[in-house]
Amino acid sequence: MLAAGNARFVADERAHPNQDVHFRNRIALQQNPFAIFFGCADSRVAAEIIFDQGLGDLFVVRTAGHVVDPSVLGSLEFGVAVLNCPLIVVLGHDSCGAVTAASEAVRTGEVPGGFLRDIVERVTPSVLAASRGGHSPSTEEIEREHVERTCALIAERSTVVADRLRAGALGIVGAEYDLAHGEARVLRVLGDVGVTA
């Protein structure tokens, strides 16, 4: 469903499903999303639009640079344990400002102040991992590393997620979104979700 929706978006043939007044009234008392999206807060990366989905289809959690913190983990656990969503999609994208800021901080040693520092510090391990062995990674390589590390971090930090993964009741897919072309591509799969990276 998600791949088909993204293909419609790329082709500019969106169906705009589940967005009429009758559907809105039908789901007013209860939500039943089929997937959880954890993505970047970037204004150009709205999951419902990119994947041509409607009201009630996706449970969406977003932070700058899709950085994981306790409230993110709590939100994801709500989607998994309370809403019984069988899929988490971690959605990164090209030209990510958080990745660029973390890369710059590693390069110069200068870290921004305020709470921007927290975002940079949470992305920095991905920059360092992509730079293993003295490799000088491209921004795209760091962004991909960050998506993959985020998938692993969610499974590592949340017992609820880890238990559902082990039971075969949940899958995690890491994907990257191309801002100019509108296409989302799978990078990593944890659990059995019927797709391969």
What summary fits the major beta sheet?
A: 5 strands, mixed
Gross geometry: globular
The CATH topology assignment is Beta-carbonic Anhydrase, Chain A
Structural class: alpha/beta
The number of domains:
1
CATH superfamily: Carbonic anhydrase
Q: Give the termini distance in whole angstroms.
A: 17 Å
The beta-strand count equals 5
CATH architecture identity: 3-Layer(aba) Sandwich
Name the helix and strand elements from N-terminus to C-terminus, one letter apiece: HHEHEHEHHHHEE
Query: What Rg is obtained from the alpha carbons, in whole angstroms?
Result: 17 Å
In CATH's first tier, which class applies?
Alpha Beta
Strand order of the largest sheet: 2-1-3-4-5
As residue ranges, the low-confidence spans are none
Percentage of residues in DSSP E strands: 15-25%
The helicity comes to 40-55%
Specify the number of helices. Answer: 8
Q: What is the overall pLDDT average?
A: 94
Report on this model:
With 197 residues, this protein is α/β, with parallel strands linked by helices. It has a single domain (2-190), classed as 3-Layer(aba) Sandwich (Beta-carbonic Anhydrase, Chain A), CATH 3.40.1050. Helices cover 44% and strands 17% of the residues. It has helices spanning 2-10, 21-26, 47-50, 70-82, 97-108, 116-130, 139-157, 159-167; strands at residues 35-40, 58-63, 87-93, 171-177, 184-190. Strands 2-1-3-4-5 form a 5-stranded mixed sheet. Helix 5 (97-108) crosses helix 6 (116-130) and helix 6 crosses helix 7 (139-157). It is globular. It starts with a helix and ends in a 7-residue tail after the last strand.
